[in-house]
What does this fold into?
Amino acid sequence: MNSVEIMIKEHDNILRMLKVVRKACFKVLSGEDIDYDDFYKMIEFIRQYADAHHHGKEEKFLFKEMQANLGKLGENLITHGMLVEHDYGRLYMNDLTEALQRVKDGDEESRLDVISNAIGYTNLLARHIAKENDAVYNFGETNLPKDIMEQVNLKSEEFEREAEKRGTQKYYLDILGNLEKKYL
It folds into this structure.
């Protein structure tokens, strides 16, 4: 599997988590108690699997080469598009974490912030994934020189092997599966 195929497969897993997050938010909206442990697992999955693992490969390998080798269009697409959206996602997760703490501390109105940040993230990431799957990855694969794309693939494969040795993929996909059983 090449790097883009791996990243698209990861997108499928991230989209599955977005469904879980949405269902958990509906429970909050319906007045149910917040299951903090579940929300913290969702945040961990997002920060570690979606961001550190998945976005890590994009930012260190594919996007870096697109910025360096695809001129102004590649630079703008990545710097002012994809990387900005990655940062917005991180902001949503930070704000969600803070909102959860405020609710824990007795601020019931912050339940709104839990929902708004979690749903804001799901909407952002769903659109972001569609752009990457439908346009950005294809642009990179089509326009990067073959030898550079081969290097991106090799680096991504090594990154995946090292993560697999640590059990990263299995650990986070197990979290995802367990949350899906509970919420979907």
